[in-house]
Structures are given as C-alpha cells and as structure tokens.
C-alpha cells in the first residue's frame, strides 16, 4: 500500500487464542524506516492494543497509520516524514511479527 499526502492507511491483523484457557494479549505495532537521512531504529514501537480473548476466540485489531506516525527529528532537528519505504510490523512481541511494506509518497 501507499500512504498519500492526505490520507491514512489502516493495518489490520486477526489474533486467535489457540489455547485452552482465556487470556490477554498485547498486540504491538512497530515501524521501520528502510532508508532515512539519519540512522533510524530497526523496530520502533508506534502503538499497542491490549485485548482479551476467550479460548478459541479470534479478534481483529487495527492500527491507523498516518504521516505523523512516520515523523522523526532529522539532522537539523526538523520534525519530518521523509518519502520512502517502511516496514509495518504487528505482533505479540518485537520478534514474532507479521510484516508488510508501506510506501510514503
């Protein structure tokens, strides 16, 4: 998907409790700027949502990604969102994630 100048993109994931017991999960959103004018984090936590799931239950979790969510302070301390490619990662922790590409125009 492409994030245009004036619109958001929604990232959606379905979480299923495959266990025999009810439980909670913290679904986390990480973003990685693949090419930036300065060194950027490999995984930057940008959002999370705690959900409760009964045994065998599935829920859909969504995150709205806007240009503001992709901003950072550049070398001259300007708060910018540079056009380019990003990895959008969603999962229960920073290692076990589903990844999708996003292009900021």
Helix-strand layout with pairing:
Blueprint: E1 2-3, E2 9-16, E3 23-33, E4 44-53, E5 58-65, E6 72-73, E7 79-80, E8 84-91, E9 97-104
Parallel strand pairs: 1-9
Antiparallel strand pairs: 2-5, 3-4, 3-8, 6-7, 8-9
Task: Give structural notes.
With 105 residues, the protein is an all-beta fold. It contains no helices and 9 strands.
Question: How many β-strands, per DSSP?
Answer: 9
How would you sum up the major sheet?
5 strands, mixed
* Overall body shape: elongated
Termini Cα gap: 11 Å
- What integer value in Å does the Rg equal? 15 Å
Helix content, binned percent: under 10%
Low-pLDDT segments? none
β-sheet strand percentage = over 45%
Report mean pLDDT, rounded to a whole number: 94
* Secondary structural class: mainly beta
Order of strands across the main sheet: 1-9-8-3-4
Keywords, separated by commas or semicolons:
105 residues; five-stranded mixed beta sheet; 9 strands; 56% strand; elongated
How would you sum up this structure in a few lines?
By secondary structure, the chain is mostly beta strands. It has no helices and nine strands.
